[in-house]
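Give me the fold.
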Amino acid sequence: MTTETQAHHGVALSDVAAMTAAIAEIGFTEVEAGVTEPRRYRNVAGDAVGQMVAPILGDEITTWFVGNPATGQQLDLVELTAQATLMAAPGEAPAQGDLTIGIPAADPEATYATLRAAAPKLTCSDPTPCPSEDGVAFTLDAQRYILSRKPEPFAYVHYSTRDFPTSRRFYEEVLGYRLVALAAHEPAEERFAIEGAGGRIEAVVRADTPVAAEGTGKRYIGSNHFRLLNADLAAVAERVESSGLGWWFFAPTEEGFSQIMGPTAEFIELYDNSAG
């Protein structure tokens, strides 16, 4: 499995095994090289990864990394299993910093039916038409998806009208990407392309986007992380410190990888423009 695709999205969910079985039926069959079973991390002495992620994801997680070789899309499945630190989602809609994930499908209605039949243990909503993406939208295990006849994977990152000006400064002044206004799909929203990130990813801004409690980390089913490519990590590092608009969760490595926390609940994997 390649790592340099931008269409890599982290999904916090309730049951890794159930989701793995379901999405395999729609093409997500490629697993991380050399890994034969999900990884389990705990907030205990001797588990460095578990102790590092605990402030964001809770005291115990199970992860599994799967891809769709036909589309180049990857899903990083993160099962939140420590009930003592699991939060209720801020609302039914994606919260600020969370994603709607778009998956290419030649026949969205048939693909939805296949996925729903393969996921009997997971809560799944009925599909609704999504004309703007020529497909259908639905929620599976609290995560919003769109099955689209368009050939390119995509994602929407959701923002509240209140906080988006801060988010825009973070993307443009700290990370170095350009946000370009797009036509809105609905009257109540604004929409922006995040240009230069290596694939189609859009910021969707609405007054009614739920905002998670600040400072608690993203410990709810349906929370997300996502990936952006082509960053200048050396320049980003200088700007993060001076701006106060973000902080490193995983500082840049020599290989050009990092994870950064944004000012309004973003959890982003950044790859340097020299990586891949």
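The mean pLDDT is 93.
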